[in-house]
């Protein structure tokens, strides 16, 4: 399908996904009534449920999904590696491990977020120190990142082993990715951050396309490769950290969304990046909808649902690709 | 568009490629850089393209030092075809050719119909018409070299620097590609070549790199001889005269 048609289609699907997420739940509300409750202010309890419970969660889910997919696309372009995802460089690992330590210490709210940010910044510093040799070298970054990730992973295992029972369940849920703890007051932050990140990343898009032809070719085309890589790394680091602080480590969205879109025809970054925001957001929105409704009243970890939803789509597109 | 060097000194890993090189590449001339493997042909070409700092002297593009020319400005006037084709596994032939338009587009601008038409024309000109939607990574070695050339053609630069444009190509393909290149008579060419006879046939000038920083440059007719090539390639070279000009071969 032509990219020009695919992007509006993704936007329509995203809107439909939002309506569905507002309508579905333990208390079913017809999508038309949900829309009415949103727009004209009437509707009593239904309006309460939608505005105070479902809308914040849907916004957060969409925003986090968009952030993760955007980070995935940026890192795949930066590292020139199709297996790159938001968690490959250990930035999220640092944020996660420090946040768990904060949980263990009984901290919450701003302190927890601060600890997470500190962990991410620590990882980023190590990556820059080890990956910079007159410019960011992708293979050094990747190696340093993979090692950092496993180091943080070991720390997380240690924390889980030593943690008392009370916070343990929350920690495990958070590690698997969890949107149930989203604070309604901050629910708009992830989608706003995703929009801002897209605005910052989009001017770099053609440079990423050129990077696909190798460093020499890209530089010969006038692309400042060193600056481009540094910008991509910083942006991906911030975006990943925001997503992890909002909802824990939700896997699969960041890895698979860019690939699905490329297979569907959005190969150039000028369309791939906005496509990632729309499709990643929608994927996580629907996955979260499934996570809270399929086994209701129990909630499933959304990370497991993203994989269950995304893997078949990806495999189908891969099998269909005949170019 | 004139490319020139003033007292240019280039070295790599402690070895001199050229010392105090004064060179003027006039518009429309076709230059070949010759020398043995490892003498620094690619290094010198990168320096001439403004991608590598020189150890001394300067490269001038229309009289202005290249390292003071903004990258985008440079890329609108000077194009480089790298030695290896490193393809994005996903990009199509059309998308790779369209990348040549990059220096002419600001980040907020979408490609216009003219950009698309230029890419299409470039793909046709190198004989890849009909393969526009193929993935570039699935092309043969020869087709990929021609695709790289198409991107350069779409870049619309008057000065082309080409690093081993004929590598991976069989005899027929080498001739076809060089015929195509010299057919763009208004463009200035500087290329590295392994095959001295191709240089003699297609180029107006040669730059010879002898190693240890020694180099000399001039018109093909004045520069190429069996004696000079013997010294250049560190192996006895003989010449035979043919109706198509002198032909050089290793003894």
UniProtKB/TrEMBL annotation, chain A:
Main location: membrane
Keyword annotations from UniProtKB, A to Z: Cell membrane, Membrane, Transmembrane, Transmembrane helix, Transport
Any one GO molecular-function label of the UniProt entry: transmembrane transporter activity
Membrane topology: Multi-pass membrane protein
Xref: InterPro entries: ABC_BtuC-like, ABC_transptr_permease_BtuC
Swiss-Prot/TrEMBL GO biological process terms: siderophore-iron import into cell
Membrane spanning residue stretches: 58-79, 86-104, 110-130, 142-164, 242-264, 271-294, 300-319
Any GO CC annotation of this UniProt entry: plasma membrane
Family: Belongs to the binding-protein-dependent transport system permease family. FecCD subfamily.
Protein name: Iron complex transport system permease protein
Organism ancestry: Bacteria, Pseudomonadati, Pseudomonadota, Betaproteobacteria, Nitrosomonadales
Automatic annotation (TrEMBL), chain B:
GO MF term set: ATP binding; ATP hydrolysis activity
Domain ABC transporter: 3-236
Keyword Membrane assigned: yes
Signal peptide: none
Gene3D superfamilies assigned to the protein according to its UniProt record, in alphabetical order: P-loop containing nucleotide triphosphate hydrolases
UniProt xrefs under CDD domains: ABC_Iron-Siderophores_B12_Hemin
Keywords: ATP-binding, Cell membrane, Membrane, Nucleotide-binding
This protein's name: Iron complex transport system ATP-binding protein
Organism: Sulfurisoma sediminicola
């Amino acid at each position: 399908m032509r990219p020009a048609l695919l992007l509006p289609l993704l936007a329509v699907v995203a809107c439909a996904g939002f309506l569905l997420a507002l309508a579905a739940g333990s208390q079913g509300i017809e999508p038309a009534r949900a829309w009415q409750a949103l727009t004209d202010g009437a509707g009593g309890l239904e309006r309460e449920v939608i505005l105070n419970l479902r809308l914040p969660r849907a916004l957060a889910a969409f925003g986090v999904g968009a952030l993760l997919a955007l980070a995935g696309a940026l890192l795949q372009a930066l590292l020139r590696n199709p297996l790159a995802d938001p968690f490959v460089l250990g930035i999220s690992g640092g944020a996660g491990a420090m946040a768990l330590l904060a949980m263990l210490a009984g901290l919450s709210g701003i302190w927890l977020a601060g600890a997470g940010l500190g962990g991410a910044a620590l990882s980023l510093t190590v990556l820059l120190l080890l990956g910079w040799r007159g410019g960011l070298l992708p293979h050094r970054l990747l190696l340093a990142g993979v090692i950092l990730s496993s180091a943080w992973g070991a720390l997380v295992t240690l924390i889980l082993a030593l943690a008392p029972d009370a916070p343990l369940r929350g920690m495990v849920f958070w590690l698997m990715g969890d949107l149930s703890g989203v604070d309604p007051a901050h629910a708009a932050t992830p989608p706003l951050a995703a929009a801002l990140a897209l605005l910052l990343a989009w001017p770099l898009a053609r440079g990423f396309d050129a990077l696909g032809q190798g460093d020499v070719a890209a530089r010969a085309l006038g692309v400042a490769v060193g600056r481009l890589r540094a910008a991509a790394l910083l942006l991906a680091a911030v975006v990943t950290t925001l997503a992890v602080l909002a909802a824990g480590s939700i896997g699969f969205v960041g890895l698979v969304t860019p690939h699905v879109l490329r297979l569907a025809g959005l190969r150039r970054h000028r369309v791939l990046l906005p496509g990632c925001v729309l499709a990643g957001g929608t994927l996580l929105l629907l996955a979260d909808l499934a996570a809270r409704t399929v086994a209701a009243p129990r909630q499933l970890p959304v990370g497991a649902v993203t994989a269950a939803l995304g893997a078949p789509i990806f495999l189908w597109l891969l099998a269909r690709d005949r170019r | 568009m004139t490319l020139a060097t003033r007292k240019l000194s280039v070295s790599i890993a402690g070895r001199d490629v050229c010392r105090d090189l004064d060179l003027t590449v006039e518009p429309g001339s076709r230059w070949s850089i010759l020398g043995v493997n490892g003498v620094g042909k690619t290094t010198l070409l990168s320096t001439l393209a403004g991608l590598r700092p020189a150890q001394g002297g300067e490269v001038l593009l229309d009289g202005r030092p290249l390292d003071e020319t903004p990258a985008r400005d440079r890329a609108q006037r000077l194009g480089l075809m790298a030695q290896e084709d490193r393809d994005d596994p996903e990009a199509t032939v059309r998308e790779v050719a369209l990348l040549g338009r990059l220096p002419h587009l600001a980040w907020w601008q979408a490609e216009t119909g003219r950009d698309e038409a230029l890419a299409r024309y470039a793909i046709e000109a190198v004989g890849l018409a009909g393969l526009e939607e193929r993935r570039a990574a699935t092309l043969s070695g020869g087709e990929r070299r021609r695709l790289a050339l198409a991107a350069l053609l779409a870049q619309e630069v008057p000065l082309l620097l080409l690093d081993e444009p004929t590598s991976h190509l069989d005899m027929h393909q080498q001739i076809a590609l060089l015929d195509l290149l010299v057919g763009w008579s208004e463009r200035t060419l500087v290329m590295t070549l392994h095959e001295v006879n191709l240089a003699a046939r297609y180029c107006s000038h040669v730059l010879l790199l002898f190693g240890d920083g020694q180099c000399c440059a001039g018109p093909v007719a004045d520069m190429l001889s069996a004696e000079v090539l013997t010294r250049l390639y560190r192996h006895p070279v003989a010449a035979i005269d043919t109706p198509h000009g002198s032909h050089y071969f290793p003894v």
